[in-house]
Amino acid sequence: MNSRNRLSGPSVATHSVTWALALPTLFLAVGAAPAAGQILNEPPKSLTAADTPTPATDEEIAFSADKLEYDSDADIVTASGNVQMVRQGNRLRADGVTWERKSGKVVANGNVSITDPEGNIAYGDKVDVTDTLKDGLVENMLLVLDSGGRLAAAKASRVNGVYTLNRAAYTGCSVEDSAGCPKEPTWQIKAVKVVYDPVRQRVSYTNAKIELFGLPLIPLPGLSHPVGEGGGNGLLVPDLRYDRVNGLEAAIPYYIRIAPNRDLTITPRVFSEALPMVAANYRALLDNGAYQITGYATYGSRLPASNTDPTVNSQKGFRGYLDASGRLQLDPEWSVSGSIRTATDRTFLRRYDISRDDRLRSTLQAERIDANSYFSLSGWATQTLRANDDQGQVPVALPIVDYRLRLTDPVLGGRIQLQANSLAITRTEGQDTQRAFVGAEWSLRKLSGLGQEVTFTGYLRGDVYHSDQNNLTETVSYRGNSGWETRGIAAAAVDIRWPFIGAAFGGTQRITPRVQIVAAPRLANLSVPNEDARAVDLEDSNLFSLNRFPGYDRFEDSTRITYGFEYQLDRKNLSISTVIGQSYRLDRRPNLFPDGTGLSERVSDVVGRTTVKFTDFVRFVHRYRLDKDSLGIRRNELDATVGTDKTYATVGYLRLNRNASAALEDLQDREEVRLGGRVQVTRFWSLFGSTVIDLTDAREDPISISDGYQPLRHRVGVSYADDCLEFGLTWRRDYRTTGDAKQGNTFLLRLAFRNLGI
After folding, report:
1. 136-181, pLDDT tens digit by residue?
2. Which secondary-structure segment (H or E) carries 348?
């Protein structure tokens, strides 16, 4: 007999909890539970697709089976063969089911599974439940969570909405290998008893312990953790570290879920050789944005960053760091963002290995962006962490106003961009500068009948400057004149590119000669201060720029021709591109560019860039500048990566040999090499390392104290990573001492159970 009936049952009081346990992904196993490779795997028998009709109301039970028997005297329904029962979104499947309609008791046997409305599936050998399909007892239960974790128990029960599981095991790891065979999970939590309270959204353990790679690792008395998507309060996995300055460090984060959109993590840090420190991170997600606030605080000793005398006594006091940032999208066009970064002293971040930045910038900005215009009102302040920098010479920029408007097809079918900009810079012990300008740039792009791409550009700008205390700026060429100054700028350019494209070397190649002519009258550049255009250097990125100074305070006033060519070869797995060029100044008037920039003479140095990419295995980028007379290398920059995302080597090399004046601090020469790599030893284990070495000597920088080979930092480590566990041990050595941030060794142990909050 094949039956497809909808049977009405008695009204039964139900509870709000289902068979779902929305636990986080973990790596654990339980007390005297059976082997995880057995109980944590789904039954081998596949279940047929659901074909039982959906009940019309919550009081109805949809029922289907291959064979159905009904004892009218006892009011008992016995079903066998692909039995399915559906009620209130819960679905039960089994080989056989006995349903006592008077008592509402349902007993299922053989390949039993219960699926809740959230998609979690509970398997068992025998299930004894009420006809709501929610409450009851399960023997040898396996609960497969929709989130990917699984929980197994010898016996499980539910009373008043609270689950109690005996001899239980939980893991978020895979329990099958790549061939689909059962395997021991990387980690699991085992406990004599597990209690899950869905109202509190928390799981508690009795006599729990963590097993790692099948070995008992850490007993966890009183273990409990949050469940569900929102998480909950509790300890997170600690970090362990050792270094020469602070000794052994233990950081134990505690997570507090304030609301679904707000949380707080407090992290006490305890050191064997220093006083404790506390860190806190507050995060909030709003309807129109987000922000976070991070702070560190301690009481300890410190030395000035410039101190090199070991006999100097340290000073004690409060030390700390604040890092806050956020952004609000007020409407589709307007947004407000900001950040605050400040430390009590220059060595705090390095001393406690929080950051290696040499400056901290705080910003505030309001922006409006639409299809054709941009407006920004902003400001920033910088705290220097460099040992010998004078904080009083570091500028504060407030306000910075920038507005741009793009007009299409206003003149001869071209495009005009209008710009208005103002800037106010103040220093506590240095030069103050205010600047404002308005400008317009017109451009028109045309294609000739021979395929030449011709771009015409016209530029006009008017500047107003005011400055005082100019004599406090050490570099004379940066000062400008005190008081009010004005400047007018005009420039015109024609840029011609002529691409030739054809088949070659089994692919497609493109050869593009390029010529640009720029004309600009002589400008009163030195009469105004230079705040934002100091670090000038000829390179491939600015070779064909209208102005090769990086900012607004200096504009290249010359008539010049720039020439070069671009090459591109594209094959199926290979891409090669290169660009090379040089410029020649047609007029003989003095120029602003200092020696060493590659632009100080009428004929510039030669600059270029070559990029080679072979599939995703090789990426090579080489940037260079060659002396126009000797072809000596003035800039040599190399970045190369070879390998896959698991096994790779990376090399970075930079040498600046510009022969610039030592008086220009923005053009100091340097030589440095950076090496790094990772080797995937097995599927989950890998080795990694990196180093940074300063190769600068007196030839590159006369004031350098390096001997030509000065290691800055080494790092070597081993790591393990699978679907549910990350483990790493790293050794790092720093070779520079800055105040109380001393050189020495650091050891870091990292152990992360993914998605596990304790």
Report:
1. 788 887 877 666 677 788 888 877 767 788 888 888 787 777 777 7
2. helix 348-351
In this structure, are residues 607 and 581 in contact, taking their beta carbons and an 8 Å threshold?
A: yes
Separation of alpha carbons 320 and 575, rounded Å: 49
CA 674 to chain centre: 22
Closest CA to 696 of 715, 713, 712: 712
> Which one, of 113, 158, 120, lies nearest residue 136 by Cα?
158
Question: What are 696-754's pLDDT values in tens digits?
Answer: 876 666 556 566 778 888 999 999 988 888 889 999 988 877 777 778 888 988 888 76
44 φ, ψ (degrees, to nearest 5): -65, -25
Positive or negative, the Cα torsion across 46, 49, 51, 57?
positive
**371 vs 288, 333, 335, 593, CA distance in Å?**
21, 10, 15, 37
- C-alpha to C-alpha distance for 544 and 496, rounded to whole angstroms: 11
398-409 tens-digit pLDDT: 999 999 999 987
What's the CA angle centered on 342, arms 337 and 348, to 5 degrees? 145
pLDDT band at 691 (very low <50, low <70, confident <90, very high): very high
Q: Are 453 and 497 in contact (CB under 8 A)?
A: yes
CB 568, CB 510: distance < 8 Å: yes
What's the number of CA atoms in the CB half-sphere (13 Å) around residue 611? Answer: 11
Instruction: Give, as one character, the DSSP assignment of residue 100.
Output: E
Residue 40: closest CA among 218, 185, 222, 233: 185
> Taking phi first (over 0 means left), then psi (-120 to 50 degrees means alpha), and beta for anything else, what does residue 413 get?
left
Q: What is the pTM assigned to this prediction?
A: 0.78
755 dihedral zone (left: phi>0; alpha: psi -120 to 50; beta): left
Burial, 36: exposed, middle or buried (Cβ in 10 Å; 0-12, 13-18, 19+)? buried
